[in-house]
Structures are given as structure tokens and as C-alpha cells.
Amino acid sequence: MSKQHLVAVVGAGPAGIYATRKLTEAGHRVVLINRDIKPGGLAEYGIFVDKEKMKTGLRKQFKRILADPRAFYLGHVTVGLNQPLSLKDLQAMGFGAVVVTAGAQGTKKLGIEGEDSIGVYHAKDVVYHYNSLPPFSERHFEIGRRVAIIGMGNVMVDIANWLLNLKKIDQVVVVARRGPLEKAYDDSEFEYIDMYLDNADMKQEIDRIGAQLTAVGQDVGAITQKMVRQGEPLEGRRLTFRYLCSPTKVIANEQGRVAALEAEENEMILQDGKTVAKGTGRTRRIEVDCVIYAIGDQVDASLGLPFSRGAFVTNPEKLPGDPNPAAYQPYDPETKKALDGIFVAGWSRNASVGLVGVAKQDAERGMKVVNAYLATKEGGSAGEMEAKIEALMEMLKKKGASVVTKADVELLEGAEQEAAKARKTWDFKYTSDEKMLEVIAARRAGQ
Ligand SMILES: Cc1cc2nc3c(=O)[nH]c(=O)nc-3n(C[C@H](O)[C@H](O)[C@H](O)COP(=O)(O)OP(=O)(O)OC[C@H]3O[C@@H](n4cnc5c(N)ncnc54)[C@H](O)[C@@H]3O)c2cc1C
User: Fold this and answer.
1) Beta strand pairing status for 290-293 and 120-122?
2) Per the count of CB atoms within 10 A, which of 135, 195, 208, 349 is most buried?
């Protein structure tokens, strides 16, 4: 009995690519289906634009993994309900398993009044925009001069980095529910923007909330020492913080554009040893002309898996073994059954959690579960697997999809590298799907 299977992996970000490696290492063949033309996910289109060493290092690793002849890449194909290809189609085509590593493509809202105003954006859309991912790369963003970023994690730092260093706007105001110690960004990341910190404003802000910090046992002197430095913000561009503030309303002007943000002032209380924000009922107005939500993302419900509160529902049953296999299996709460043969990993399993290393580890753990599952099933011959891949290609062709293969990605990357060299930069990306497909077609034709 053959133990080799054909597996569909949906999403070629870090999780999907490292999953592919684990599956091919176990002797299986993988069809890696990706929405974007190029592989890499947020490693390509999320990690900050100037992190050359990290981006080129990951690109090389991904290229090596995808070079395995057992890995078959299909770019520019979105899987989901109302798409040319659904998870059900993949199952019906006889894939041994379907692994969903499509990241967290849904956006979270705060649900406050005015959040549909012009100039309110989600961090991921902005990040995709400045990292040149179509169609976000071509979209116009009304950024303005004073931007509120809601949230205090590393994504906030990346956006502030783009706004202050590259867009050269006047002011970024970071709005956070709790205080300075509850930051979620890394100090090493903060170094990209700390030259813009308005130290006088930070001192005033800590003085303003000092009593609240003391009330939960925090040392105001130590916080001031850590946060407040000497000197003026570089080139007058200011980075300020409004702590203990929860946005309640986006105030728009007559043209429907952001004119200010209203926020409720919070106090902090201790609950089970943790600080929790509690509204005071008092509000304040923060003068900004753009608001960016950097509050994390949720998975994309249109993939068609059971979905609840921003996440795919996974099997609650604790099964024995390491890793817990149930955590990687979507689960239908209505039938109370795990979905047979479907698995989730990376940010599709745990939205917006962790760096590339965490997505990699999650995919590798998950593929232990998938490999164990496949070992219990009868596989197929190389010929049968090739026939299935051909049938899939045929089906996509019939539906009019312009599928991009591994060889096409290499042609595109070759063209982009030449363009980068000509421009004397380390990186160059075509910013529309049409242009990328045109370049691929031209290279295929030997032009
Ligand atoms: C702004 C930002 C900055 C970051 N900076 C760093 C950093 O500096 N260092 C670091 O280590 N980590 C960084 N990270 C974290 C890192 O990018 C993630 O940990 C990692 O990319 C998650 O991997 P993933 O494969 O689960 O998801 P993703 O990277 O999101 O990949 C998902 C893939 O699925 C595809 N896809 C989506 N929907 C579908 C669909 N319906 N059908 C088919 N394909 C689909 C997408 O095209 C994409 O290729 C950053 C993240 C963000 C948001």
C-alpha cells in the first residue's frame, strides 16, 4: 500500500512554506495554492520595507524549499466560497489532506461611530500598501499630517516608522487602552522611531496618568526614567502617546473625512494580578486627520470553515499526544465533529500571533499531526497524483484563472532583480497583478 499522498496547502506564507517542507520530507507531494502571485505572505508583504537582511534571507530559504520537485506551486489562485476553487472542491478532487495556512486576512473593527469615515484604515491594508502588494499597492490612502494609531504592538511601530521616516508626516499619536508598561512592542523595534519621541509631551502624559499607575502598584519614577529622554524630536516630526484612552468615536468633517478622534479616558484596575482598563465616562478629543487600527486581525471567514469570534473553530476535544492534534483540526460546533482531512496552521490557526519563527514552529507541529493522519490512509501512485494536478489545472483554466507556476515566479523575480539593479536599489517590486502577469508572459515568450 502506497503511503505517499497528494496534499493541498492553501496559502504560501511562512506557515504554508514550512508546512510544505515537512510534508515533502515525509515523502508526500504538495500543491501549494496561493492568493498572491509571489510566495512569502507577510514575510514578503508585511515585514518592514528596509529589513533587507531578513527579507532576503527568508526569500532564499523559501526558494530552496519550493525548489523541491515534490512541491507544485499555484500562485494567483484564491481559495474560498465564491472563488474559482473552494476547500470542498479540493476535497472532492481526492487530496489526501487539505491544510489551510492562509494567514489572518480578515480585519477587526472597533465598532465605534464614524469608523467608516474617509481616512480610517486597517494596519494590514496600509502595510500591504507600502510593501507593494496588489491591489493595496494601487489604492490611494488619505493619510493627512497627524495620524492616530490605535494599538501599541510591533505593527504600530512599523506603521509609525513608515509615517515618520518615509511619509514624513507631522505627528503620530499612539492611542492605547492601558499604560506604558502594557506596551506590546519590542524595545529593539522602537529604536526605529524613538528619535521622534516628543519627550516633553511624554513627561506630561506620564504626569497626567501618574496616580492611575501608582494605584496599580507601578513605579512612576522608573517609568518616567525609562520613557522620557533628553532632546527634541528629529526634524520636528513628533511621536506622542495618549495612554489610558479607548476610542469611542471618529469625528468627521463635512466632506466625511476624519477631523478628530474622541476617546474615553480609562483608569486601571487589577484583576487576577493583571492590569485591566476601565472606562471613567470622561472623554477627550484628539486632533488628528487619519486613524489607523493596529489592533490585530482575524481569519477570513470566506474560506468556508466554521468561524467564531474572528477565529476558525478548532476541535475542543483534548486528544493525547504532543502536539495536541485537536488544535489543528477545524471543528463543526453544530455536528460536534472535527472536519475530516482538513487542518489549519500558522496565523490561520492563531491570528496575528508571533513572528515568522512562531508561524514556522506552528506549521511544523501541525504537519506532525497531518503526517500521522496520512499514515493511516492509503496513498496513491505518482501517476495518479500527476493526473489530479492536471485535473486541477484544467479546472482552473476552464474557470479563466491566470495561474502562476514556480517557473513563472522565477521569471518574474529575475525581471524584478534586473529592475532593482538598474535602479541601484536592493529591492524592486511590480505593483500590479496585470504588470506582473505581463512581465511573466513576456519572459515566457523570451522577450
Ligand atoms: C506589519 C507586520 C510586520 C511584521 N514584521 C515581522 C518581522 O519583522 N519579523 C518577523 O519575524 N515577523 C514579522 N511579522 C510576522 C510574520 O509576518 C508572521 O508571523 C507570518 O508571516 C505569519 O505567517 P502565515 O504563513 O501564517 O501567514 P501569512 O504570512 O499572512 O501568509 C498567508 C498566505 O496565504 C495566502 N492566502 C490568503 N488567503 C488565501 C486564500 N483565500 N486562498 C489562497 N491563498 C491565500 C496569502 O497570499 C499569503 O501568501 C510581521 C507581521 C506584520 C503584520
Assistant:
1) parallel
2) 349
